[in-house]
Design a protein that fits this description.
This protein is of the alpha/beta class. It has helices at residues 4-16, 21-28, 32-40, 64-74, 85-92, 102-117, 174-188, 217-226, 242-255, 265-279, 291-300, 386-391, 400-404, 407-415, 418-435, 437-449, 455-466, 491-501, and strands spanning 132-144, 147-158, 163-169, 190-191, 194-197, 204-207, 213-215, 229-232, 261-262, 303-304, 314-319, 325-328, 333-336, 345-350, 354-358, 364-369, 377-379. The protein is elongated and about 175 Å long.
Length: 504
């Protein structure tokens, strides 16, 4: 059959230019029958494909049962030890009579794996009701007190209105998730009725047969405290929470660029919640209605906020080592306590931002900024070690206390004998316990500059510098003090007595 362009040329010559069949045959080179068929044709509709059950034979057909057997057996093994298309092709090449191309094998293996594992790329579009939210973490960096940190930002988005909220954390653990969601709940004053999550390990300990999840104890506590329904996505199904997937990138680009700098991550998170007002005031990208108006619909379908505050911190018991340090997070993160707690059990209270070490009666020993990351790291607070250091003054230069001292105090420590250094460290420990390390260092520096080193004088200088004077208890006027008795005397006798002692 002639191409449509040729047929069109013949018909134009005949119907529009008035040429006869002989002229058209002579000028185009087509035979008269072909020209006549083109002129007389009255159906130019595209051809309709005809259904057929016939399958084309393939050189691979006789090897397909072998391939299927290999792939079926693979279902018993882990994914990383299953056949790839290349491995199937390589094994087939070892068989007699095999002469198929790799491309043919790859297409068939791909088709069979879809049947066996359901690895289709199809994404089911979902409808999310008002009052529902989606949660996810994204990676981000920040500077806290001038130090660059790798962190994570928690995103909570509302697909109906497209409103979103973000909180920044040093990590992606259970405490960070709960703290961030708690901050957002408190900010909006309501709780989403349903929240979609992925299958992160802090929340899900196991995916059960049939798609059920075994949830961690702490997440169940959090979920029941606020009353929301937790919905979990199927593995590798990002489309099921596509709104928050987009919000992860949006919040990073618009609220965390340039890389933020701050002194307190807790205060910065307060500012982030305030900053979302501007972004949530935009028109919805599809509905062309202000997002905040749509968010009112979300709010109407949310749950009331539980007035009882939820305690985020997790309490664990750990034993310290001979250096009075405790290791958590599978030994990756090390925190100091105090010398008196060497080789003892202590309570460790883990929050999103801080770690508090408590004694057996839950009294605070020391507080640390919480450590994150996969590398072994240590947080050392040297202040509780001052008393022990006074008993071992020679160790001063090899501790962090030495680096914390001003140069004048270090020079003094380097120049005096051990007994005087021990006395100085005792004074440092005593004043630190009373007024803090910075004030103690200042008082000792002034004292040494003025040649004063006895404890009473150093303490007096400290109180003079800081206007700290001991309070004198008021006299109790209700005490049983006997009244004074009146003295009756003859003044003339007193005058005579004075005259006797007068020298002429």
């Amino acid at each position: 059959m002639l191409p449509m362009a040729r047929i069109n040329d013949i018909r134009e010559r005949y119907f529009e230019k008035g040429q006869n069949i002989s002229e058209i045959s002579r000028e185009t080179g087509h035979d008269r029958k072909t020209i006549r068929d083109s002129i007389n044709r009255d159906d130019f509709s595209p051809a309709v494909p005809v259904e057929t059950d016939m399958k084309r034979e393939s050189k691979l057909d006789k090897f397909k049962p072998i391939i299927e057997a290999w792939l079926e057996e693979d279902k018993l093994h882990k994914r990383k030890q299953r056949h790839t298309a290349k491995r199937v092709h390589d094994r087939l090449c070892e068989l007699d009579g095999y002469d198929c191309s790799y491309r043919l094998v790859a297409e068939y293996v791909k088709e069979k794996k879809k049947e066996l594992y359901g690895t289709s790329g199809f994404a089911m579009p979902l409808v999310h009701k008002t009052g529902e939210a989606q949660s996810d973490f994204g990676h981000s960096q920040y500077y806290e007190r001038g130090i660059l940190n790798d962190g994570n930002h928690l995103n909570l988005s509302f697909p109906n209105s497209n409103n979103g909220y973000v909180q920044l954390f040093p990590g992606e653990n259970m405490e960070c998730l709960m703290q961030g969601m708690k901050n957002i709940f408190n900010h909006i004053g309501r709780v989403p009725r349903r929240i979609w999550f992925d299958n992160a390990s802090p929340l899900v300990t196991k995916i059960l047969k049939g798609g059920d999840r075994k949830l961690t104890e702490r997440f169940l506590q959090f979920k029941n405290h606020y009353g929301f329904e937790a919905v979990f996505c199927n593995p590798n199904s990002g489309n099921e929470k596509g709104n928050v997937e987009s919000k992860v990138g949006y919040h990073r680009r618009n609220m965390l660029v340039p890389v933020p700098r701050f002194d307190s991550i807790e205060q910065f998170n307060v500012e982030l919640l305030d900053a979302t007002k501007e972004h949530n005031a935009k028109n919805h990208y599809i509905k062309n209605v202000p997002q905040n108006e749509l968010f009112l619909e979300d709010m109407e379908n949310m749950l009331p906020l539980n007035p009882v505050d939820f305690r985020i911190e997790k309490l664990e018991k750990h034993k310290t080592d001979k250096y009075a340090k405790v290791r958590i997070d599978n030994g990756k993160h090390i925190y100091s306590t105090a010398p008196k707690y060497e080789s003892q059990e202590v309570w460790v209270e883990l929050g999103a931002y801080q770690v508090r070490i408590l004694d057996e009666n839950y009294r605070e020993i020391v507080k640390h900024t919480r450590l994150y990351g996969d590398q072994v790291s240590e947080s050392m607070d040297w202040i509780p070690y001052l008393g022990a250091l006074a008993r071992r003054p020679r160790a001063l230069k090899y501790t962090g206390v030495y680096e914390m001292m001003p140069e004048a105090l270090r020079n003094y420590a380097d120049s005096v004998e051990q007994s005087k250094l021990s006395k100085m460290l005792k004074q440092l420990a005593a004043i630190t316990g009373e007024s803090g390390f910075d004030k103690a260092v200042e008082s000792l520096t002034v004292s040494i500059a003025n040649g004063v080193n006895d404890p009473d004088s150093v303490l007096a200088i400290h109180r003079m510098i800081n206007d700290e004077y001991p309070e004198i208890a008021e006299l109790n006027g209700k005490r049983n003090i006997p009244p004074l008795q009146p003295i009756r005397s003859n003044l003339s006798e007193y005058d005579a007595f004075l005259d006797e002692g007068r020298v002429n």
